[in-house]
Design a protein that fits this description.
The protein is 29% helix and 25% strand. The strands form six sheets. Strands 20-17-19-18-22-23-21-24 form an eight-stranded antiparallel sheet. Strands 10-11-15-13-14 form a five-stranded antiparallel sheet. A hairpin with a 4-residue loop joins strand 13 (212-219) and strand 14. The longest helix has 17 residues, at 439-455.
């Protein structure tokens, strides 16, 4: 039986062991051993005929109770099952991560970080298709590393479990903010940068990974190392947007900039794709806006699709004149909506949607998302393919983001991009109706759209749910970066214990 799939015996053994303190791991039975069990067989002499490897002393705790494990038995996508870990580490220090990575390696156990995103007690892994899952292994609750260590003039130092919301609030005290943030602010910073981190400021600042100046990371070999563009650049480049394959990021130095006070937000509606794309690229070239995003949406009468461009101009003091900001675009003023709000309200705008999704029963639904980077030269062709394939029911109450950015803004090599100077995000963020029976069909639709996009030169964003991804698919995805990733994997995770849920190599 694969060590990644817990047997009934192993699970029941783990449950029984929670009645007492866990002191070690029995490799022969693949169960946790209590002090009584280990002692009855002569300490290290074995439980059930095997040798018990003691759990190292920890500043935090190693949890194995069913109540603790069940919280890590699913992720945000709610699409995969049988992903319950055998233990959850709540680290009390970075040294706990070092100890447990070494423990996992010595006992042939998988280990992965879990960002535990969300608010208050409503926390969950925000991987979409089991990417952070570690069945039959050890899941690290990143909220155990949740300190904002310092906020300086140009950078902040944070532990990996800090959310973008927490950093934003801490930096605001000194009149600062992170420049590149995701649309949902309650994601852990460590988890976000392991995949990239995209939001409406990508056109100006790149991905979140492009604002990271250095990291402290516990490699799969159990070493705590610092990495930056000039110190161990191979490790730095493999860790950022590398899907957690070379180490557990524990601390980051993040660029910060002066906080924006207010923002004027334009929403411009287009009824044809060609005009939307032309104006979107014109806006990007002009560089007048801090934020540029866009959406592909069904028309109100469900007769087809239309496009919405969202543009945000930040300011302090006097608001900018509005007409010059959108001069040169098609005559959109009759359909435009314009809002003036605090910048903080804007960046936390998605919170209201989340509450609505939760109240309507959508938040816990399966969410077969699909996230792609498209080359501008093929974006119109792909959008027409997607429009012909997608229906209103395929979205539920979700949405499709699509907007341009310069690929040169994205510096980290594992955030692989189309071979084009301009890329487009295509982000199919489905929230299916409760009880929707067609989830498997949506996953197959994702695979179909992915294959067509790749044929046009697209790359995928590491979040999302695409079935049957093979190592050959991943090799094609990473292209000329694949050898660098493999070399870093061999060097920094020689036993292959880290983050199996990505499936890059098996």
């Amino acid at each position: 039986m694969s060590t990644n799939t817990p047997s009934r015996r192993r699970v029941l053994g783990g449950m029984a062991a929670t009645a007492a303190t866990i002191v070690g791991w029995n490799a022969a039975t693949q169960t946790w051993a209590t002090a009584a069990e280990a002692g009855s067989h002569g300490g290290r002499g074995g439980h059930g005929g095997g040798q018990v490897t003691p759990v190292p002393p920890l500043d935090g705790s190693l949890k194995t109770s069913p109540a603790d494990l069940v919280q890590f038995s699913k992720d945000f996508g709610n699409l995969v099952s049988n992903i319950t870990p055998w233990a959850v580490l709540v680290p009390g220090s970075v040294n706990d991560i070092v100890k447990m990575v070494n423990f996992a390696r010595a006992n042939n156990l998988k280990i992965a970080a879990n960002g535990r995103s969300g608010t208050e007690e409503d926390l969950e892994s925000h991987s979409n298709y089991g990417q952070a899952a570690v069945p039959g292994g050890i899941s690290i609750d990143s909220r155990g590393l949740g300190r904002v260590i310092s906020v300086g003039t140009n950078t902040a130092v944070v532990e990996a479990g800090v959310t973008w919301a927490q950093l934003t609030d801490a930096a605001a005290v000194k009149g600062k903010m992170p420049p590149a943030m995701p649309d949902y602010m309650h994601l852990s910073i460590g988890g976000t940068v392991s995949v990239g981190g995209i939001g409406g400021t990508v056109g100006k600042y790149g991905l979140a990974v492009d604002t990271i100046e250095s990291i402290d990371i516990v490699t799969g070999a159990g070493q705590l190392l610092t990495a930056s563009p000039s110190v161990r650049p191979d490790l730095f480049n493999a860790a950022l947007a590398g899907g957690g394959q070379v180490g557990i990021i524990v601390r980051l130095t993040v660029k910060i900039v002066p906080a924006k006070e207010r923002i004027v937000v334009f929403n411009l509606v287009y009824n044809d794709v060609a005009t939307y794309l032309a104006d979107a690229e014109k806006v990007m070239a002009a560089g007048k806006f801090e934020v540029q995003a866009g959406e592909l949406a069904r028309k109100p009468d469900d007769s087809g699709w239309r496009y919405r461009m969202e543009l945000g101009a930040t300011y302090t003091g006097t608001a900018p004149a509005r007409d010059p900001l959108i001069a040169g675009l098609r005559d959109v003023r009759s359909e435009a909506t314009v809002d003036d709000m605090s910048f903080r309200d804007y960046i936390f705008r998605f919170d209201a949607y989340v509450e609505g999704y939760k109240e309507g029963g959508y938040w816990d639904q399966p969410k077969p998302w699909l996230s792609l980077f498209l080359p501008a030269s093929k974006v119109k062709q792909f959008l027409q393919i997607a429009e012909a394939d997608l229906t209103a029911n395929d979205l539920g109450v979700g949405f499709v983001l699509t907007y341009p950015y310069r690929t040169s803004k994205l510096k980290r090599p594992m955030a692989v991009q189309p071979n084009d100077s301009i890329g487009y995000l295509f982000d199919l963020l489905r929230f299916p109706h409760p009880g929707e029976p067609g989830i498997q069909g949506m996953l197959e639709q994702n695979r179909r759209l992915y294959d067509k996009a790749v044929a046009l030169g697209a790359k995928r964003y590491l979040v999302g749910a695409i079935p049957r991804m093979t190592p050959a698919d991943w090799k094609k995805h990473f292209g000329n970066r694949y050898d660098d990733l493999c070399n870093a994997k061999r060097r920094y995770d020689p036993a292959g214990i880290l983050t199996p849920g990505q499936g890059f190599f098996a």
